[in-house]
Amino acid sequence: MSSLPTSIPVGSWVLVTGASGFLASHIILQFLDRGFRVRGTVRDVQQCQWLLEGRFKKYAENGVLELVAVPDFSIDGAYDQAIKGVAAILHTAYVTSIVPDPSEVITPMVASVCSIIHSAIKESSVKQIVFTSSAMATTPLTQDIDNGTVTRDSWNDAVLEAAWAPPPYGMAHAMANYPASKVAAEKEVWRLVGEKQLPFTVNVVSPAGLIGEPLNSKHIGGQANWIVHVYRGNKGVMDMMQASFYADVKDVALIHIAAILDPDIKNARLQSWGHKVHWNDVLAILRKFRPQKKFVDDYPESYHLRVEVDQSESLKLLKTWGERDGWTALENAVVENVDNAFLSD
Fold first, then answer.
1. What is the distance between the terminal CA atoms of the chain, rounded to a whole angstrom?
2. What is the pairing mode between strands 243-248 and 275-278?
3. Which of 145, 185, 144 is nearest to 163 (CA)?
4. Which SS3 state, helix, strand or coil, does residue 166 take?
5. Which distant-in-sequence residues (6+ apart) come within 8 Å of 340 by Cβ?
6. Where is the 3-beta hydroxysteroid dehydrogenase/isomerase domain (predicted)?
């Protein structure tokens, strides 16, 4: 694995946006472990000091990990200084606000794509960019319909239309805005790739749900810590999406890294969804490993989403760059998620 040719030299600076996020923190740690230097962007450096402590501390002390503030990633030139001297960029940052007005979510997400690409064009050191999209950029992952087969040209245009439906804005808009922002942002990526002679390679990684080891307490109580919701029996959250796809966060982080380092991966849409999962599958694992705890009852019907997607390119990267034979087992990811979330029984 160490002898593999890489598109950027070991020891290069890599920029990771949205560095305090669940996925981004794992990307950072894996890059550091491979001998790269990482600059992470956050809104407020003081609120993200945990990224310089614990498992990250030795890297920060050795000067190979640093944080820089980008308070508003949507403005032109927001990344000009952060990009100085970096060989690669991983743009994982997104708008976390759940608000009804699409202009507060979709508009800044698209603007952030333009901002970081325009900044990268001006910095000759940049050779690779990877954008984090979403499975929901291709299909709604709806439970009650056949979602069909996802292809290179699949787009969830319906959610974009729903988000931009005329006001008054309400909860339907708020729920549509996040996936719609992913559709719009990724389309903007490929528009710029098609229209400009970019001096760097661009790839996109599209996860579905992420589970696995949280590296900070902020990743435990959030809306998207699915396993914690099941552990606590938060049916209000569980009922909204009984079935979906889930992958271990470390697998998806590795695919992002491989999309930077592998010289043969160019202009790829890497669908990295993981396993088809119903909450009953997770509940069975939790009961096995926490027999002393009472969990919510199973749903009357256990099913999986009716959608097909080719994940072979992502799985090949896991094998090549991580010597992994497929996705981390669901059981392992669930147990690691719970064991590191400091949950009382």
1. 40
2. antiparallel
3. 185
4. coil
5. 213, 214
6. 15-149
Q: How high is the pLDDT of residue 251?
A: 98
Q: How far apart are CA 185 and CA 290, in angstroms?
A: 41
State how far Cα 289 lies from the chain centre.
Answer: 27
Q: For residues 307 and 292, is the Cβ–Cβ distance under 8 A?
A: no
According to DSSP, the residues that pair with 41 across neighbouring strands are 68
> What are the Cα distances from residue 48, in Å, to 68, 95, 289?
10, 17, 33
CA nearest 140: which of 112, 163, 111? 163
Distance CA 136, CA 140 (A): 5
Q: What residue ranges define each of the domains in the chain, with the CATH number in brackets? A: 13-339 (3.40.50.720)
Q: Which residue has the tokens 């009357």?
A: 300
For 212-250, what is each residue's pLDDT tens digit? 999 998 888 766 689 999 999 999 999 999 999 999 999
Single-letter amino acid code for the residue at 73: F
| Cα separation, 161 vs 67, whole angstroms | 37
Helix (H) or strand (E) holding 131: strand 128-132
By the 8 A CB rule, do 126 and 86 touch? yes
The Cα diameter of the chain in Å comes to 60
